[in-house]
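Can anyone check this?
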Amino acid sequence: MDVSLVIPLLNEEESLRELAEWISRVVKDNNLTYEIIFVDDGSTDSSWDVITALAAENEHIKGIRFKRNYGKSAGLNVGFEASEGDIVITMDADLQDSPDEIPSLVSMIREQGFDLVSGYKKKRHDPITKTIPTKLFNWTTRKVSGIKLHDFNCGLKAYKRDVVKNIEVYGEMHRYIPVIAKWTGFKNIGEKVVFHQARKYGKSKFGFERFINGFLDLLSITFVGKFSKKPMHFFGTMGMIFFLLGGGVSIYLIIMKLVHISNHTVARDVTDQPLFFLALVAMIIGTQLFLAGYLAEMIARVSHDRNKYLISEKKNIKNTDSLNNPS
């Protein structure tokens, strides 16, 4: 199979049929074999009924339904597990992502050899309250991750099959799939300017809090990517810095006290100086950080997935009792 389209959604009943017909028309015109996987993230409208009807009409359409809302990351992760295409393309279900971009994305993966291609909505049809925080978010992510993308959060992306089968998307990490892919070893990441359409039906499901959560997630994924296999490198280094800093200050205070004694001058006791207690706190923090690193290192060494980066194919979906899959 050439292409798998993975489309997570929440309450998008108005747009699903139009989107499915648009995708089918584009892939057929370009002679691509395909499947469309709609992942219903606990919709409360009739989205699942529409998906069921579409699947009955078109053998290329599949559906996965969550019993409750788990979030976009969970939807993508389950969709990736279920996908069978050589190239996996994700897009939003609100018709703001154009299926006409599919042939170009496929070409960039096949002919230019990219592991991942991310869409770039250069001209956005969003209010300024979304565009300005988005630019700040993308600038920060570029600086922290070193990945030169303009729009990390664009839902329209294309992946080689190996990429989606070797990454795990959880929490709200769908914003950082390029970062996750890079830490996993897929570094050939490209970008394509894509057309962004104004929302035709419904309203956005994301609020301003996504930007706050996004920065916290960035710190988390950066830390995990760098130190999940070697936590002592972080905790041990920070622990040594704090301990040496506190110890150095304490030795300095003691030496100064001895100098005053030798010169028969009046000086405060070492234990009467606030700086001594700050140094003591630093030494305690340093010791605790070092112990935390030691414990984390022991946990990492006995973890069953400590060599997970050597696995070429992910295991099958677990906890499937939380899903209803159509037959």
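Reply from J.R.: I decoded it. The chain has two domains: 3-227, 231-301.
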